[in-house]
Specification:
heterotrimer, A mainly alpha, B mainly alpha, C mainly alpha, C: mainly alpha, Helix Hairpins, 3 helices, oxidoreductase activity, acting on NAD(P)H (chain C), transport (chain C), membrane (chain C), NUOK/Mnh_C1-like (chain C), NADH_UbQ_OxRdtase_chain4L/K (chain C)
Chain lengths: 118, 507, 99
């Protein structure tokens, strides 16, 4: 059983050895002469305008969270969509109720003003 | 209409038996939507009133279904006496917490609609948890109760302590959930079933009692549930979360979560895992003993009342477990009886703490100093609560402990009864100073200006009642009276919890 | 493919997640580790579901995924609220209802 995987194992082992060897050799044999230009994020072209301490606004997180919640609810719809015919009317009614509940949530979020970008 | 229903191929749902759950979740939706209305008075007073109405309606539906034993949605949930009793406890705790939260800062800060609908959803989750007879519904119920509580703990958005307690509870609670889930996954792996009845048959048929996978599943399930029920040694989060959360939320959490967790422990371990009783009994016994010791010793020397009650709740959960490990009907009855008693005492205590916290801004034991002279009702309720938690005769707590010890002795675990007694004796050392602080004459001048002692003159009581809210005083008075009444005339309590296992295995 | 491989990977994931929750201090990383723990459970469920050849485990896994998303959303919400509290400019307007 192991022989089936022999090529893969050889590949992984060789890859690891070669990778490590090059990294180590580079550090041992190479020279290091840093200069400001070399240490730039982009060696050529414009210097980056974005400061390191940059943070996203609160609204970004808010919308991201709401997207995550509403997006993940779709998960429940997939199995029903695949098997709707087998489940029959009950599943359809249930899905409509489920989407209705999501709509209530959406109305709440909207009325609370969480969707306005500040 | 009938023709449409006839073509439905879905699971049979007994809507009447399902109605208590619908009452809670429907109430949550209505409360959420009403919370959007613009007049301030509706948001501040209409929303909590509606919340109480939803809890009240649920209790009404429960009484209507009192003698039913039905399994719901293909045995995913079951309505039996245990479910009904736990739901009743949760609803009473919900009403009391709503009254306590009526003037709560936290409810204003995250909007009333959100606060109270989260309370209702958490209550619904507890009912699902206590009623579940399937691993999937158990997990969903657990999360449905935990997720709203995480938010409620963090609902004082302006208080860093509240936010931190919410985050802490979320992290520890999620570790508990993940552990429980892994246990459930292994249980499913060992048996190939997710419903309790199926697991039971499979375990018996395949003789899985000593199977490694089954043992690992039991172990992880126990650890996960112990995290949720704040049992030692998985309790470290409890004092911090209880202290940081808004007091009404702490009150609800300490009482209702415990009821739901004990409910699911009884149901899961008395049905699905019953054949493995010799495997899980030692683990629960160890956890019970450690909880009683750690809770009672930890509570000694706490200066914050909420932290003290947090440790005390760990110890009380340990007492409750004694009723589980004997695996008898008497044990289950004792557990539910003790849950009732614990609910009365804890809600009375937290009501008093809520009032004092609003008046003095602190929940230190010192903030109660001189309360007996100024507000005998509050001081009396707190005294009864402390004595009941300690298990002094003539309070309901004595009846509860007596029943637990009786169940322990009956099940052949007399030494666990002795552990309960020893724990109760230690507990006197932290319950009695609270009582003493309230009734001691208030003569030391200028020791604690926060207690507002300057307003001793006439009319001060009315002013304080106004700030503290008459609702909280009402809760304290009702719970205190109930402790005394049930302590002297326990017969109604025995009748309430009698045949708690009625319809337990209804298929 | 043998069920054991699923279980080994999922046990490793669970252990990594648990260690991460214990040792990391950054709340966002802790949330990631919690996800890892829950998804370890999912992987075990799916592996067992394949072993037993029924769909119960898969349905369970879908439910768990939704629960995990809710947990992360709440965690992020609390982290954002904490962060917002430490900012000098407090975005109060968002909290109280307009009107």
């Amino acid at each position: 059983m192991l022989s089936t995987y022999a090529p893969a194992i050889v590949f992984v082992v060789l890859g690891t050895i070669i990778g490590i060897a090059f990294t180590v050799l580079n550090g041992v044999l190479g020279t290091s002469r840093p200069s400001p230009a070399k240490l730039d994020p982009y060696e050529s072209g414009m210097a980056s305008e974005i400061k390191q301490g940059f943070r996203f606004g609160i609204s970004f997180y808010l919308v991201a969270m709401l997207f995550l919640l509403f997006d993940i609810e779709v998960l429940f719809l997939y199995p029903i969509a695949v098997q709707l015919r087998a489940f029959g009317t009950f599943a359809l009614v249930e899905t409509i109720v489920f989407i209705g509940l999501l709509t209530v949530a959406l109305i709440y979020v909207w009325r609370r003003g969480a969707l306005t970008w500040k | 209409m009938t023709s449409v229903l006839a073509s439905v191929k879905g699971p049979e749902i007994d809507w009447a038996a399902f109605s208590p759950l619908l009452g809670l979740f429907g109430g949550a939706l209505i409360v959420l939507m009403v919370g959007l209305s613009s007049p301030r008075v509706i948001r501040a007073h209409g929303v909590p009133a509606l919340t109480i109405a939803a809890f009240g309606a649920t209790i009404g539906l429960l009484i209507w279904e009192w003698n039913e034993q039905v399994s719901l949605i293909q045995d995913a949930l079951i309505l039996d006496r245990l479910t009904i009793l736990i739901t009743l406890l949760v609803c009473v705790a919900g009403i009391a917490s709503t009254l306590l939260a009526w003037r709560e800062q936290a409810a204003r800060e995250i909007a009333h609609g959100e606060f109270f609908s989260l309370l209702l959803i958490a209550a619904g989750g507890m009912v699902v948890l206590a009623a579940s007879r399937n691993l999937v519904t158990t997990f969903v119920g657990l999360e449905l109760l935990s997720l709203p509580l995480y938010i409620l703990c963090a609902s004082r958005l302006r208080s860093e302590r509240s936010l931190e307690s919410g985050l802490k509870y979320l992290i520890v609670g999620s570790v508990g959930s993940a552990t429980l889930l892994y246990g459930f996954a292994m249980l499913y792996g060992a048996t190939g079933e997710t419903d309790y009845a199926g697991i039971l048959t499979q375990v018996v048929k395949e003789g899985l009692m000593g199977d490694a996978l089954f043992l690992a599943a039991i172990g992880m399930t126990i650890v996960g549930l112990a995290f949720k029920a704040s049992l030692a040694p998985f309790h470290q989060w409890t004092p911090d979360v209880y202290e940081g959360a808004p007091t009404p939320v702490t009150a609800f959490m300490s009482v209702a979560t415990k009821a739901a967790a004990l409910g699911v422990i009884v149901r899961l371990f008395f049905t699905a895992l019953l054949p493995g009783v010799d495997d899980w009994r030692p683990a629960w016994i160890a956890i019970a003993v450690i909880s009683i010791l750690v809770g009672n010793v930890g509570a000694l020397g706490q200066r914050s009342l909420k932290r003290m009650l947090a440790f005390s709740s760990i110890a009380q959960a340990g007492y409750l477990l004694v009723g589980v490990v004997v695996v008898t009907e008497l044990g289950a009855e004792a557990v539910v009886l003790y849950l009732v008693v614990y609910l009365l005492a804890n809600l009375a205590a937290f009501a008093v703490i809520t009032v004092r916290e609003r008046e003095t801004g602190s929940d230190a034991i010192g903030s109660l100093r001189g309360l007996g002279a100024r507000s005998p009702i509050l001081a009396g309720a707190m005294t009864l609560a402390m004595l009941s938690l300690a298990g002094i005769p003539a309070t309901a707590g004595f009846i509860g402990k007596f029943r637990l010890i009786e169940a322990a002795a009956d099940g052949g675990y007399t030494w666990l009864g002795i552990v309960i007694v020893v724990g109760s004796m230690i507990s006197l050392a932290y319950y009695l100073p609270v009582v003493a602080a309230m009734w001691r004459p208030d003569t030391e001048p200028g020791v604690d200006p926060a207690t507002g002692r300057a307003v001793l003159a006439g009319g001060a009581q009315e002013a304080e009642a106004e700030r503290g809210g008459w609702e909280a005083t009402l809760v304290a008075a009702v719970m205190g009276a109930a402790i005394l009444v049930f302590g002297i005339v326990p017969q109604p309590l025995f009748e309430l919890v009698g045949d708690v296992l009625k319809g337990f295995g209804t298929g | 493919m043998n069920i054991n491989w699923f279980l080994i990977v999922s046990a490793l994931m669970f252990a990594l997640g648990a260690i991460g929750v214990l040792v990391r201090r950054n709340p966002l990383v802790v949330l990631l580790c919690l996800e890892l723990m829950l998804n370890a459970g999912n992987l075990a469920l799916l592996g067992f579901s394949r072993m037993w050849g029924d769909g119960d485990g898969q349905i369970f896994a879908i439910v768990v995924m939704v629960v995990a998303a809710c947990e992360v959303a709440i965690g992020l919400g609390i982290v954002v609220a904490l962060y917002r509290r430490r900012l000098p400019i407090d975005v109060d307007e968002l909290r109280e209802l307009a009107g």
